[in-house]
Design goal:
Keywords: Disulfide bond, Hydrolase, Protease, Signal, Thiol protease, Zymogen
GO biological process, one term: proteolysis
Family: Belongs to the peptidase C1 family.
Shape: globular
CATH architecture of the largest domain: Alpha-Beta Complex
Pfam family, one: Inhibitor_I29
Strand content: 15-25%
GO molecular function: cysteine-type peptidase activity
CATH topology of the largest domain: Cathepsin B, Chain A
Radius of gyration: 22 Å
């Protein structure tokens, strides 16, 4: 009997090992991963640990789902290196505006700028903590298009290389970048200053700014007030377009695939506990079912490429300041 049990256990172990090897090889093929033999063993362990987490989460959580992506074989240190939001002193304004949304008007049930003709395709920050630069540029692109009628992509690389208020690939903040742009005289077109950053990039060391390629100027910017307040942010979203914000990134979000993201560990008490810049581009509410209630959500644009999340976007629970998303919303106006 003991011998039979040992045979069964050995058979199961072999089957699991074969399954793990097949899953690892398919993952590498699917995401174009290629490693040296020594690195492959480490990456495989990272992947298998993540595979167990994803399987367990999807079995137990019905509100949102996980899936494998480019992050699945990365170490925690690698994933943290691309987080670049560096909060500034709260409510500092460099360019003030006397014009604010009317807060008592009727808001639409939903807003979704993802398919708006003025929304540029999702971009990928790569191995650089430059999320702040992408969050800076998105609302400028959108609002300049709304004002001038022409969709133009603007340069994140100009900010990574030139903005001395921020730290290039070492992080920064969109309000600092808007201050820099307003003082510099405008932001360049991406066609004249394309994004190239990888693991390097230190502001001020390789700036190629040229005023001849400037296509938009910042005229005003500020924080949404009061905060955190979902209704206030919804009003600004309607009147001023996409709103950058900063959030706390937990390990759970790297493999987000669908649904409305939430994590009890992401209800944080410290408003400065944020490390990644994103852009809110809409809001809505899920339809209630027999097993799940209706859930208010934000539609959020990320800068991790179209292969992440829902073609580069994700939904996150609205109205509870999930991951501090409602504490750091800001708006910008352009000419």
């Amino acid at each position: 009997m003991k011998f039979l049990s040992a045979i069964i256990l050995l058979t199961v172990a072999v089957a699991m090992a074969d399954r793990d090897e097949d899953a690892w090889n398919f993952y590498k093929f699917q995401f174009g991963k290629s490693h040296s033999p020594q690195e492959d063993a480490i990456r495989k362990q990272n992947f298998l640990a993540r595979d167990r987490v994803i399987e367990k989460h999807n079995r137990e959580n019905k509100e949102w789902q996980m899936a494998h992506n480019k992050f699945s074989d990365m170490s925690d240190e690698e994933k943290q290196s691309i987080l670049g939001a560096k909060p500034t002193v709260r409510r500092e304004r460099s360019v003030a505006s006397d014009s604010h949304p009317v807060m008592d008007r009727q808001l639409p049930a939903s807003i979704d700028y993802r398919t708006d003709k003025c929304m540029q395709p999702v971009k990928d920050q790569g191995n650089c903590g430059s999320c702040w630069a992408f969050a800076t540029i998105v609302p400028i692109e959108f609002n300049a298009c709304k004002k001038n009628g022409t969709a133009i992509a603007f340069s994140e690389q100009m900010l990574v290389d030139c903005d001395t208020y921020d730290g290039g690939c070492n992080g920064g903040m969109y309000t600092n970048a808007w201050k820099y742009i307003s003082e510099k005289g405008g932001v360049m077109k991406s066609s004249a200053y394309a994004y190239t950053s990888g693991t390097t990039g230190l502001a001020g060391t390789s700036c190629k700014y040229s005023s001849t390629a400037v296509a938009a100027k910042v005229t005003a910017f500020g924080w949404t007030m009061p905060y955190p307040n979902a209704t206030v942010s919804m009003n600004y979203l309607q009147s001023d377009g996409p709103l950058p914000s900063a959030i706390k990134i937990l390990s759970s979000i790297y493999n987000y695939a669908s649904g409305v993201y939430s994590d009890p560990a992401c209800i944080v008490a410290d408003e400065y506990d944020v490390d990644h810049a994103i852009v809110i581009v809409g809001y809505g509410t899920t339809t209630a079912t027999s097993t799940t209630p209706a859930t208010p959500y934000w539609i959020v644009r990320n800068s991790w490429g179209t292969g992440w999340g829902q073609s580069g976007y994700f939904l996150i629970k609205r109205g509870v300041n999930m991951c501090n998303i409602e504490s750091w919303t800001a708006y910008v106006r352009v000419a």
